[in-house]
Design a protein that fits this description.
Length: 94
C-alpha cells in the first residue's frame, strides 16, 4: 500500500497532463486489481483517448476525466451530459 501513497503524494507536483494521467492510471489499475473488478474506463469508455478515473465508491457515478477535444460530444453520445470543469468544481483564490 506504500506504492499507492507514493503515487498520491506525487500527483500535486505534476508538471504535465501526461504525467498526471500516468499517475492516476497506475492508481486506478492497482485499485482495480485489489478489488478484482475492471476499471470504469475498461467497462464503459475503452475508446476514450484520455483518462477516466473512478472516484468515490467505484460505482461509476462520479468520475474524473482528462480533457480531450470532442469530449463533450463523446460523453453525450453515451448519455452523460453533466461535465463539470475543474474551475467550476474547485473554489480557490486566484
Amino acid at each position: 500500500m506504500d506504492f499507492i501513497s507514493s503515487i498520491t503524494q506525487k500527483i500535486p507536483f505534476c508538471k504535465t497532463l501526461k504525467e498526471f494521467e500516468e499517475l492516476l492510471f497506475k492508481h486506478e489499475k492497482i485499485i482495480s486489481k485489489i478489488l478484482d473488478i475492471p476499471t470504469i474506463k475498461e467497462t464503459y469508455f475503452p475508446d476514450y483517448s484520455g483518462l477516466v478515473k473512478s472516484l468515490g465508491a467505484w460505482g461509476g457515478d462520479f468520475v474524473l476525466i482528462s480533457y480531450r477535444d470532442g469530449m463533450r460530444k463523446y460523453f453525450s453520445k453515451k448519455g452523460f451530459y453533466t461535465l463539470i470543469s475543474f474551475d467550476e468544481m474547485i473554489v480557490y483564490d486566484r
